[in-house]
Amino acid sequence: MTRSRPPSRARSRSRSRSRSLNVRALLALAVMAASVAIALTMPVRLGLDLRGGTQIVLETNSTDTAKADRAATDRTVEVLRGRIDALGVAEPTIVRSGENRVVVELPGVQDPKKAADVLGRTAQLTVHSVLGAAENAGDGAGGTEEKASGAEGKRVLPDESGQSLRLRAATLTGQDVKGADARFDQQNGAGWHVTVDFKDAGSDRWARVTGEAACHPAGDPERRVAIVLDDKIISSPQVDPSVSCGAGITGGSTQITGSFDDAEARELALLIKGGALPVPVETIEQRTIGATLGDEAISAGAWAAVIGTALTALFIIVVYRLMGALATVALLCYGLISHAALAAVGATLTLPGLAGFVLAIGMAVDANVLVFERAREEQAARTRPSTRSALTAGFRSAFSAIADSNITTLIAAALLFFLASGPVKGFGVTLGIGVLASMVSALVITRVLAEFAASRPAVFRRPRITGISSTGPVRDALLRRDPFLMRRPRRWLAASLVVLVVAGSGILVRGLNFGIEFTGGRLIEYSTATQVDPDRARDALADAGFPRAVVQSSGDGDLTVRTEELTDAEAATVTKAVAELGGETEKVRDELIGPSLGEELRRDALIALGLALAAQLAYLAVRFRLLFGTAAVGALAHDVVILVGVFAWLGKPIDGVFLAALLTVIGYSVNDSVVLFDRVRELLGKERRTPFDRLTNDAILQTLPRTVNTGMGAVLILASLAVLADDSLTDFALALLIGVAVGTYSSVFTASPLAIALHGRDTGSRPARRGGGRNHGTARPTRPGKQPATSRTERQEVP
């Protein structure tokens, strides 16, 4: 009996592993089948820079009470931005042109005419008491106001059935509205309606107007309340008989009912929620525009992406052999899943987004590298009898680091999506999709492929081909040298401070060179005798000294040039360059334009980013310690200041492309720190009496192979973009190369020393300085076949 139990337990474990593998395989197949189906049936929408789109020119008009000046037009831009976000159009461009025009560019709009109609509606919402039916339909019809008895004005408008009603002056306006949503009443069969929620003061006014109406008998027109949008009664419900006179409807909300379909209800809700335009607008032009980037730039970016991805795949295969090849297959699956998810949510893909998407493939290597390095540690310690068991232990040990780093990134992505707008909101969508897809790729697809391959007899007999049977050159070098990097942590902090001051001084000395998205500039439209190719125009303007000019085809053969602010002499130079290509040239439009990343958008982005960092700090404090969260956020601030400062010294533009790069660097920096501190946390649980500085040093040495291999994967792609891609992507790649280098440095030599310094302050003790490169703890990089020795010196209790 005793001898039969071990085989029984082994068979039970084997069956359990087989069931788990089968479940993961079925999940992977289901995800891939759904991704293939979506990718084949739903194309991804391309942005203005890759495909172009629709341009709508709106003109603001003055009224008796409001003047259509620059301030009113700027407020109109912000209201329009909210409506476009509600329409589901991602990555639009909205700028003020001149004093009273707004240029809206929309990528991939299915119905441009409908979009123009929605944008052009003033959306003045008012709520009125009904004074009764109009005896004469012409009495004040059309919204004209007359004097009634007393001081109140009145207006006469037809209701939904065509009956004319006399209305009292507005009791509530759109300023009293807190929100609006389109809902479907399936239970009562009432169909689609719009629920409107009022603010506190609006709630009191709503109760008053419905309380006054309730004093009239049922069926009397005066028992009705009229809801008016742009001088048209859209709903005039009668107050329910259950409402008593003077009490009114409390709760601060109402329903607008009618014969709405889903599209009409949603359109009405977004107009009410988005708010009224401060002044009326009129659509004066609508046309198709070409891509802001030429075919050559797009082709160069695509080739750079392909070459960079191929180099990254080759690097992973060289380092991890069979497991690297399987990880490459999983990364291709990651790309397909991300593509399908972008298509499914209707996201708009721009060139920086495409570059970030390719970079995410390089960064998605990180999860696979974490697993493979942990499996190598298990194999090196000789604690696992087979490659498959080492892989299983690697996935289990790496899970917490993968989960924590991805959750912190998802927190940031969610807050950017819900609180920011414009391109920052779009970045949140792309970032969230990339993180979720990378987790599916690494934890499901890679694991299925790796465990299946490791269980094959041919692989079992030849473990070296798996790539995890050896420790690798980086870990071997660390084992030979056994450096004590954290011997003097304050020196590393001093070095980081010097780099921070030198780079940050560029912001004060040189200042920031904000791009046209932040500062606005000048828009000139030309009509030429001969149609000009935008690519040739870009080259000509670059040669003339305007390398950052945005050139687009516009309408029927016209050419639009958007630059920073120009003097008259510089504008003449631009005109001359265009005329040399197109012959006789006429200026159709020459106007100053406002920033596409306006003040409100920038403020929302900063608020969202600040809250994202605070949320990440709170999560790290809960999952780890406040000490680790503070050190990680401190290293992150260090990276951001250095990157911005270097761009200031180089005189590079701070534009929308740089903003995308900066947000990517923030995610990369936090990810590196989380992986390191996850290992510190693990070692704290195993060896609580090891000095904290030595324990942190152990964590650095154990995670350094992962840091080097992940960094190399990202650098290969970024170097390809920097060398092969168009100028617009060169700055993007340069920013990310700087960010990856600084982020890798700061996670080791800024976050770690800062954590040691904070820990020393908490415990009131100085970090240990003795022992040099001796082995002082059990949690060390281990040599194959040997268990690390336990030191009997320098015992310091780690609380």
TrEMBL record:
Keywords annotated in UniProt: Cell membrane, Membrane, Protein transport, Translocation, Transmembrane, Transmembrane helix, Transport
Cellular localisation: Cell membrane
One Pfam family this sequence matches: SecDF_P1_head
Primary location recorded for the protein, binned into one broad class: membrane
Domain spans labelled Protein export membrane protein SecD/SecF C-terminal: 281-450, 574-759
Feature: compositional bias, Basic and acidic residues: 144-158
Segments forming domain SecDF P1 head subdomain: 157-279
Span of domain Protein translocase subunit SecDF P1: 74-130
Region (Disordered): 135-164, 761-799
InterPro entries: SecD, SecD/SecF_arch_bac, SecD/SecF_bac, SecD/SecF_CS, SecD_1st, SecD_SecF_C, SecD_SecF_C_bact, SecDF_P1_head
Gene3D superfamilies, alphabetized: 3.30.1360.200, 3.30.70.3400, Multidrug efflux transporter AcrB transmembrane domain
Transmembrane regions: 300-320, 327-347, 353-372, 393-419, 431-454, 492-512, 605-622, 627-650, 656-677, 708-726, 732-760
UniProt topology in membrane: Multi-pass membrane protein
Described purpose of this protein according to its UniProt entry: Part of the Sec protein translocase complex. Interacts with the SecYEG preprotein conducting channel. SecDF uses the proton motive force (PMF) to complete protein translocation after the ATP-dependent function of SecA.
PANTHER family for the chain: PROTEIN TRANSLOCASE SUBUNIT SECD (PTHR30081:SF1), PROTEIN-EXPORT MEMBRANE PROTEIN SEC (PTHR30081)
Subunit structure: Forms a complex with SecF. Part of the essential Sec protein translocation apparatus which comprises SecA, SecYEG and auxiliary proteins SecDF. Other proteins may also be involved.
Family that this chain belongs to: Belongs to the SecD/SecF family. SecD subfamily. Belongs to the SecD/SecF family. SecF subfamily.
Protein name: Multifunctional fusion protein
